[in-house]
Design brief:
Blueprint lengths: L24 H26 L6 H12 L9 H24 L15 H11 L9 H26 L5 H13 L7 H30 L5 E4 L6 E6 L3 H10 L5 E5 L10 H4 L4 E4 L7 H7 L4 E3 L15 E4 L8 E3 L5 H9 L11 E4 L3 H5 L2 H9 L5 E7 L8 H8 L5 E6 L13 E2 L2 E2 L1 E5 L4 H14 L9 E6 L3 H12 L6 E3 L8 H11 L2 E2 L3 H9 L1
């Protein structure tokens, strides 16, 4: 086992016995085997296309979902991963047969992932980590960044495809990048270009997902979300999938069950086509790493739509359900949006016995909402009422040093605005920072993929001030944890955005040489102390 893809990786190097996330060695072996299978599949897809064969988009959708299944805190079930590997092999066989029928002789590529689950686990252990760790340190580092970035792109591509948004450019890049991995004929310049291209492709994926979300659910509007609860039966929805939430809201109409969000589902309350349901009530809990305590306290079942899943405690093991690519051995998995078992479970559980008022937070400040008052914001900047903008967001996690982000936001001056997104917001989402000319100082842009909204806001402001994004009074202070954060960072670098502060630690897979390139070309830097960073930013 060798896994270094998340921020909490063991000793800041890699998990080699078991994952800090709860991933066991057999799961890691199956994830490795799946990645090798996808690399082989990609080679066949490229050969098929080179020879004029049409490859169905379904292969791209499968590739995105399978990559997503290897992302941190998504799929912990070796048997479910086996299903992906078997399907991957089936697609590969079909492609080879198509090439044979067309008269193209193709040398067999890769391995045959067949046998029992135990045999596949052994094969995965033999194949090991997808990236060759024995090659040049900087090339290896760039390949790791690329593979981890691909997983982030795949997550957004998967969600976008569910909403009918697809683009063959994404799928082609998956194939190109996976097939090229470990190609020793490629030099450092090639891999640097591939990493930045991954950022470009991720920007496209986020744009597609944004279009899908806003077309299906409307553009978010500023909305007050209760943090308390009301008496009655209840279901808690965690993860990121708005479409699953929409279907659940439809399925629970008239049942007397109230629906609550957890984690990154909080921004769902700002979408008009979701907030219109009267039983879509409020938000319960905070970020993913606190779920073991928060899920145990919730008096109804939990639906986990995407990451981040942690090993369920016995107290709620029988009342948590997964869907999509998410899985844990023994946890009930729902398919085809059939929520019958989930609803039955909610009706059998006690629910909340009484109303509780725990205050509220505001969501819904995506690009349309912010840009609708752009003239006012621009005027406030010009007359000195707003001195600086901060984008403070990204992933949350368990490391105690993440309190930096709480303290940073608390200490931002009153003449600054703080934009946030992702689950990193839960370090300060309930802070009362006040407002400037009736515009809240804390503006929640949405989920991590709503980095697209943040980018559009920055571009619009740069256009209004007739300058580049790097010339704006804007600073990015980001927290990372898993691979979606990697893909977003690559998008920012692709756009040429500089002077990003990143924490709480730098990724284990970034070599000193690659870090030097990032520092020299993009002035990327680790966070230090709140006082020092604020002083450096504001002067």
């Amino acid at each position: 086992m060798f896994c270094n893809q998340c921020e909490q990786t063991s000793r800041g190097v890699a998990c080699t016995i078991a994952g800090v996330c709860g991933k066991k060695a057999d799961t890691a072996a199956m994830q490795d085997l799946l990645l090798h299978a996808l690399k082989d599949l990609s080679t066949y897809v490229i050969k098929a296309r080179e020879n004029g064969l049409v490859v169905d988009k379904g292969v791209g959708r499968f590739t995105a979902e399978a990559l997503f299944a290897t992302l941190t805190n998504v799929n912990f079930d070796p048997a479910r991963l086996q299903e992906y590997i078997i399907k991957c092999q089936q697609i590969k066989i079909e492609l080879k047969e198509g090439l044979d029928k067309a008269g193209y002789q193709v040398t067999k590529v890769g391995f045959e992932p067949i046998g029992t689950l135990e045999e596949m686990i052994q094969r995965g252990e033999q194949k090991g980590y997808l990236v060759d760790l024995d090659q040049n340190e900087d090339i290896r580092s760039l390949q790791e960044i690329l593979v981890h970035g691909l997983k982030g792109v795949a997550a957004y591509a998967h969600h976008a495809a569910i909403l009918g948004r697809e683009d063959d450019r994404l799928y082609r890049f998956f194939y190109e990048a996976l097939a090229a991995t470990n190609d020793r004929d490629k030099d450092l310049s090639f891999w640097l270009d591939m990493v930045l291209k991954c950022g470009e492709i991720n920007l496209l994926a986020m744009e597609m997902l944004d279009d899908g979300n806003t077309s299906y659910f409307g553009h978010p509007v500023p909305t007050s979300v209760p943090l308390g609860h009301k008496a009655g039966k209840s279901i808690l929805v965690s993860g990121h999938d708005l479409y699953d939430l929409k279907l659940l809201l439809e399925a629970t109409q008239g049942t007397g069950i109230n629906i609550y969000t957890h984690g990154e589902m909080l921004p769902a309350h700002g979408y008009p086509e979701l907030k219109k349901y009267p039983h879509f009530y409020g938000h319960f809990g905070t970020a993913w790493q606190n779920q073991k305590q928060e899920f145990a306290e919730f008096p109804g079942p939990i639906l986990m739509t995407t990451n981040c899943l942690l090993e369920p405690k016995d107290s709620y093991f029988n009342s948590i359900f997964t869907t999509g690519p998410v899985a844990w051995p023994g946890v009930q998995h729902l398919t085809n949006s059939n929520f019958g078992m989930l609803i039955d479970k909610a009706l059998s559980m006690p629910g909340f016995s009484e109303d509780s008022d725990r205050g509220s937070v505001m969501v819904g400040f995506a690009r349309n909402a912010v840009l609708s008052v752009a003239d006012k914001i621009i005027e406030m900047v010009k007359n000195g009422e707003v001195r600086h903008f901060f984008l403070v967001g990204g992933c949350d996690g368990a490391r105690s040093s993440r309190s930096y982000y709480t303290d940073f936001v608390k200490n931002t001056p009153q003449d600054t605005l703080v934009l946030t997104l992702g689950c990193g917001k839960f370090r300060f989402f309930d802070q009362k920072l006040g407002s400037i000319q009736e515009i809240p100082r804390l503006l929640d842009l949405g989920q991590c993929n709503d980095a697209y909204s943040a980018i559009q806001i920055a571009l619009a402001l740069a256009n209004a001030f007739d300058c580049g994004v790097n010339d704006l009074p804007l600073s990015l202070v980001l927290s990372w944890f898993e691979q979606k954060a990697v893909s977003i960072l690559l998008s920012l670098l692709y756009l040429g955005i500089k002077d990003i502060r990143l924490g709480p630690t730098l990724p284990a897979f970034i070599s000193p040489g690659v870090l030097d390139v990032l520092v020299k070309n993009f002035d990327i830097k680790p966070i230090s102390s709140v006082d020092a960073d604020l002083a450096a930013i504001l002067g």
